[in-house]
Amino acid sequence: MLWEVGIPGKAGTNWDGGLYKVMMTFPDDFPTKPPKCKFDPPLFHPNVYPSGTICLSILDEEKNWKPSITVKQLTRPPVYGVGFKICLGVQDLLDHPNISDPAQIDAYQMFKNDRTAYDKRIKQQAIERRPK
Amino acid sequence: MSSDGDNDDFVYDDEYEYDDGFDQDEEADEIDSTSEPDVYDALSPAIEEAPQKKPYDVTWKVKTLQEIIDMQNKEIKKIQSVLEVPPSSAAVLLRHYAWNSEKLQEQFWNDPATALQEAGLSPPSSPTTSTQPLPSGPFECPVCCMDYDAASLEKNTYAMGCGHRFCKDCWTEYLTGKIKAEGESGNIQCMEDGCSRIVREEVIDEMVAADVFKKYHNLLNAAFVADSPNLRWCPHPDCQYIIECNQAPTRMLDQLVPTVECKCGNELCFGCGHPASHRPVLCRVVKMWEKKCADDSETANWLQANTKECGKCNSTIEKNGGCNHMTCKKCKWEFCWVCMGPWSEHGTSWYQCNRFDEKSGVDARDTQAKSRASLDRYLHYFNRWANHEHSAKLDAEFYKKTEKKMEQMQNSGNLSWIEVQFAKQAVDVVIKARITLKWSYCMAFYLKRNNMTELFEDNQRDLERAVENLGYLLEQNIIDTDSIAKLRSDITNQAAYVQKRHDILMDDTLKGYLERRWEFAIPT
């Protein structure tokens, strides 16, 4: 099963205005195993791998994934029309990167060394990802 | 290097003495009687292993799976009665504290509620599964979103002491997936996000199919063995035994090579789980060596191509058995397979084929030559190591060839089946010695150059030469009855000599660890 999910940036943050598309692939043994979540196209963010795969502990079966996460934390009733659901955890991650667990070097280094440039880049990305 | 053992009193160079005392009647007597060790020794000298325990040997026990289960149950029972908790809770607690019952009791009596909670159990005051109140209205399973009316709640849903209720179908699917697909057992948690309550054995028994429950138990046993530093599974295929050894903790592995033998008949290293003896080399050195050989795999691949070229006519030669004394089919050039030097230098004079002289051929000013020397040095030891490894692969063929020869001897020499067993025993000795020699080259590669290393290489050379001579004798063709008698005495003597050299090398090297005699040059 494959879901196409749009995650809006939280209002009032640099991510506001953008709609970030995530492909959620559900394995056969879901919900024992978590869905694989991948930004498509890949996202400029410290915890997103260059391939677009999201590095988040609740999405890792070895870490904090639990079958009950499905409904409560991950999804909510549709906001942006049918087929779109919000990944709360992922939405929260957008503005709160986990710096101890970087997944891509570009965003990580910019976040650490030059916050002004990083914020600018995020705002630019939000404009690029504005829903048409 | 001298051997100061008292048990090597057999005579291995006096070949005529036992030749005379060798006839059918005596032979038959000796097979049953071990009370005449002197005569018996002369027939198959020192092939039997010395029974006494050496300071570098460890004692061990081979356990069955049932014994492992009993060990766990005994611990569980003890904790159950001391802490007054149900058996499955005692098991969860013990697993949490890696079966260290002293630490568990200390923590538990210090603060029972915290100890229970940290292990993933309900504190004593909280409701249990049975006292957990059922929701009054209809219930939606948080995982699958299925609705259950109040009447079917007790039958179709389940909550542990933590109170997180899910439908039984979801529990079954979750637990089955955890056990079958992920191989988890002792630390499967509640399905609720953030809840670290452990699912206990009786819950699993209730929720999953019988075969999954069986697998759960197998995984628990595997985890118990893995968590216990004094237990190790026998690594040999289809072997179900577990080895228990209390004398080889990790901190001792710089002084001991704890080779043990499983009931399945195979040897293993208790220290690292290597599925054969790697004596006399320490576990960590073996690991380093194997990593190096894997890293240099390109070179190793090239090296392992089993062909070499004749030093005279450049014909490509593959060695597919036999000893190291090679004769080129084409030009009749006789040479040594190991060093490729002329064989004439080996038979009579100094056998120079086991050591690598670092000094020769290295121009200290030329860094290029230096790096080549270090590669050459590695290749030197690797070649010799791989050579013995390759020989070991031909063991089966070696036995087959020898068997054929034994038949031949029975037919043409009028010898009984028992009388020709010396040949098989000699092959046993050769194979054992070759494995030791193989590892001795790994050892020599990492040893610092000093006097002790020279002595080590002296022993190594003596054994190498003895094995080579014995291998040569075993390759001899049988011509007539007289030559059989001579060959038999030669082989028996040489086998005894090899065994003795083998024991000296092994004994000295292993004692050397205890005496901290060996200095390693471990490249960083």
TrEMBL record, chain A:
<dbReference type="GO" id="GO:0005524">
    <property type="term" value="F:ATP binding"/>
</dbReference>
<keyword id="KW-0547">Nucleotide-binding</keyword>
<comment type="similarity">
    <text>Belongs to the ubiquitin-conjugating enzyme family.</text>
</comment>
<keyword id="KW-0808">Transferase</keyword>
<dbReference type="InterPro" id="IPR023313">
    <property type="entry name" value="UBQ-conjugating_AS"/>
</dbReference>
<feature type="active site" description="Glycyl thioester intermediate">
    <location>
        <position position="55"/>
    </location>
</feature>
<protein>
    <submittedName>
        <fullName>Ubiquitin-conjugating enzyme E2 I</fullName>
    </submittedName>
</protein>
<dbReference type="InterPro" id="IPR000608">
    <property type="entry name" value="UBC"/>
</dbReference>
<dbReference type="Pfam" id="PF00179">
    <property type="entry name" value="UQ_con"/>
</dbReference>
<feature type="domain" description="UBC core">
    <location>
        <begin position="1"/>
        <end position="131"/>
    </location>
</feature>
<keyword id="KW-0067">ATP-binding</keyword>
<dbReference type="InterPro" id="IPR016135">
    <property type="entry name" value="UBQ-conjugating_enzyme/RWD"/>
</dbReference>
<dbReference type="InterPro" id="IPR050113">
    <property type="entry name" value="Ub_conjugating_enzyme"/>
</dbReference>
<keyword id="KW-0833">Ubl conjugation pathway</keyword>
<dbReference type="GO" id="GO:0016740">
    <property type="term" value="F:transferase activity"/>
</dbReference>
UniProtKB/TrEMBL annotation, chain B:
<feature type="domain" description="RING-type">
    <location>
        <begin position="137"/>
        <end position="357"/>
    </location>
</feature>
<dbReference type="GO" id="GO:0061630">
    <property type="term" value="F:ubiquitin protein ligase activity"/>
</dbReference>
<keyword id="KW-0479">Metal-binding</keyword>
<dbReference type="InterPro" id="IPR013083">
    <property type="entry name" value="Znf_RING/FYVE/PHD"/>
</dbReference>
<keyword id="KW-0862">Zinc</keyword>
<dbReference type="Pfam" id="PF21235">
    <property type="entry name" value="UBA_ARI1"/>
</dbReference>
<protein>
    <recommendedName>
        <fullName>RBR-type E3 ubiquitin transferase</fullName>
        <ecNumber>2.3.2.31</ecNumber>
    </recommendedName>
</protein>
<feature type="region of interest" description="Disordered">
    <location>
        <begin position="1"/>
        <end position="37"/>
    </location>
</feature>
<dbReference type="GO" id="GO:0016567">
    <property type="term" value="P:protein ubiquitination"/>
</dbReference>
<dbReference type="InterPro" id="IPR002867">
    <property type="entry name" value="IBR_dom"/>
</dbReference>
<dbReference type="Pfam" id="PF00097">
    <property type="entry name" value="zf-C3HC4"/>
</dbReference>
<keyword id="KW-0863">Zinc-finger</keyword>
<dbReference type="Pfam" id="PF22191">
    <property type="entry name" value="IBR_1"/>
</dbReference>
<dbReference type="InterPro" id="IPR045840">
    <property type="entry name" value="Ariadne"/>
</dbReference>
<keyword id="KW-0833">Ubl conjugation pathway</keyword>
<dbReference type="Pfam" id="PF01485">
    <property type="entry name" value="IBR"/>
</dbReference>
<keyword id="KW-0808">Transferase</keyword>
<keyword id="KW-0677">Repeat</keyword>
<dbReference type="InterPro" id="IPR044066">
    <property type="entry name" value="TRIAD_supradom"/>
</dbReference>
<dbReference type="InterPro" id="IPR048962">
    <property type="entry name" value="ARIH1-like_UBL"/>
</dbReference>
<dbReference type="InterPro" id="IPR018957">
    <property type="entry name" value="Znf_C3HC4_RING-type"/>
</dbReference>
<dbReference type="InterPro" id="IPR031127">
    <property type="entry name" value="E3_UB_ligase_RBR"/>
</dbReference>
